[in-house]
Automatic annotation (TrEMBL):
Protein name as it appears in the record: Delta(3)-Delta(2)-enoyl-CoA isomerase
Enzyme class: isomerase
Gene3D superfamilies to which the protein is assigned, alphabetical: 2-enoyl-CoA Hydratase, Chain A, domain 1 (3.90.226.10)
InterPro entries xref list: ClpP/crotonase-like_dom_sf (IPR029045), Enoyl-CoA_hydra/iso (IPR001753)
Family: Belongs to the enoyl-CoA hydratase/isomerase family.
GO molecular function, one term: delta(3)-delta(2)-enoyl-CoA isomerase activity
Ranges in a coiled coil: none
Keyword Lipid metabolism attached: yes
Pathway(s) this gene product operates in, as recorded in its UniProt entry: Lipid metabolism; fatty acid beta-oxidation
The protein's Enzyme Commission number: 5.3.3.8
GO cellular component, one term: peroxisome
Keywords assigned: Lipid metabolism
Length: 238
């Protein structure tokens, strides 16, 4: 599950409970509900900081839940349902009317990698945690919205190839070199502290959240199209 805390203009969404934060129906529903609450309370200067408790940030979809189905066909249906239910979560992060920062303090793998990739800023630990998309090793096809978001967020063709077609594990420092990660820190506490400092810096700008969200959408047109996000035509106040 996840918790929500508000400190001034900073919203903190934290994955809690199961150390691996598997993306099964309960957690996906909890994240989506929490993002909806954040969006409804947004004002000029709001910023989201996302993080997680424990060794893992998220190990991806809850495959044990899928495999526990009574039959192979029902197991496939469960997995497909989880994939589709994460789509609106990605859309919600991509359309949130405020800057978004994620402090990745543990491993973010498979579907769990979608959460960092959908944020504006990614901060990581240098001493623990990797970014990993192991679908090629698991024999699972890549969902269309995964592919679209990855293509637009990971600009290096070599980095994209290695992560998608080789299942390469990317550390925080390697992520900085690949221009996927913004900065790294030597502990979970310092990573979160840095996220707070960045959040406070961005909050002071008092940006209009609706305008911010529409500019973000304009930067990632393919992702928004696949996620069903339509860019609004805002009227300038100038």
């Amino acid at each position: 599950m996840c918790s929500l805390e508000k400190r001034g203009n900073l919203f903190f969404l934290t994955l809690t409970g199961d150390d691996q934060h598997r993306l099964g129906p309960p957690l996906i529903s909890s994240i989506l509900s929490t993002i909806s609450k954040i969006s409804s309370q947004a004002n000029a200067g709001s910023v989201l900081i996302t993080t997680a408790h424990g060794k893992y940030f998220s190990t991806g979809f809850d495959l044990s839940y899928a495999r526990s189905a009574p039959s192979p066909s029902e197991a496939i249906d469960r997995l497909k349902s989880m994939v589709e239910s994460l789509r609106p979560v990605a859309a919600a992060f991509m359309s949130l009317p405020m800057p978004t920062i994620i402090a990745v303090t543990g491993h973010a793998a498979a579907g769990g990698l979608m959460l960092p990739i959908c944020h504006d800023y990614i901060l990581m630990r240098s001493d623990h945690g990797v970014l990993l998309m192991p679908e090629v090793d698991l024999g699972l096809p890549l969902p269309d919205y995964f592919a679209a978001v990855m293509r637009e967020r990971i600009k290096s063709p070599a980095a994209l190839r290695d992560m998608m077609l080789r299942g390469v594990k990317v550390t925080g420092e390697e992520g900085v070199k690949m221009k996927i990660v913004d900065s790294v820190y030597d502990s979970a506490e310092r990573t979160i502290d840095a996220a707070v400092r960045l959040g406070e810096e961005l909050a002071r700008r008092k940006w209009n959240g609706e305008v911010y969200a529409e500019i973000r959408k304009s930067l990632y047109p393919e992702s928004c199209q696949v996620l069903g996000l339509i860019q609004k035509q805002l009227v300038s106040k100038i």
